[in-house]
């Protein structure tokens, strides 16, 4: 299974062109694609609904879009920016989980979120953490780690403990196949964390039992760049594996040739 995470910066590459075709070519071939900074009706461009356009450019994928910021944009229109997951297999269920954010004097700050997608017996968590400060990122990491840890016991978006049958067709909620959505134990947490290896936020994720796929691939704390435009270049994008998934790790790498965004994609292959 090939998995990729990519902060696409609404498709704006280092040449300052918004080019969603280039983004689609960069991630094509993955079984699961996690994207951050995907816009809908946010600014004037050829394809203002970027989620729909990316789905068109990547046929054969099931997909979900989870806005972190959702504003009025006119009658029947929403102005949104958020995260997207595409999967060759069916996305069995999904939830959008808001993360804490608070105002910072003198800066523009936006809401962040994490989207949960259940695919092929895995929980995929795609997130984008705060860029302003470690204190907000650490708050967000603690919230998302709690949500991930509780999910198997809490169950999916529909639960029915002790219910022998989901009931006849006239019940208020009916599942087409008569089966409750599952909430498997193995989890992958990935996205733009806006933090480097060794930072408090990074250490919090590792302390919760998650392995860093790039570290498993042999990239230590001071190797590998996913945000090349900064001074110095930084590794801000990560793929973390829950304990039972480490044995399935095959390889992980950064696509250093990608130029469709200010970030670079991180890839993972699982057995």
Task: Describe what this molecule looks like in 3D.
Helix 1 (20-27) packs across helix 2 (50-57) and helix 3 (134-154) runs parallel beside helix 4 (200-207). By secondary structure, this protein is of the alpha+beta class. It has five helices and twelve strands. Helix 1 links the parallel strand 1 (2-7) and strand 2 (32-40). It has a single domain (2-156, 176-270), classed as 4-Layer Sandwich (Deoxyribonuclease I, Chain A), CATH 3.60.10. The strands form two sheets. The chain has a six-stranded mixed β-sheet. Strands 5-6-7-8-10-9 form a six-stranded mixed β-sheet. The mean pLDDT is 95.
Q: Can you describe this structure in just a few lines?
A:
This protein has 271 residues and is of the alpha+beta class. The protein contains 5 helices and 12 strands. It has a single domain, classed as Deoxyribonuclease I, Chain A, CATH 3.60.10.
Number of domains: 1
Looking at the structure, the CATH topology is Deoxyribonuclease I, Chain A
Shape from CA axes?
globular
Gyration radius from CA atoms, angstroms: 19 Å
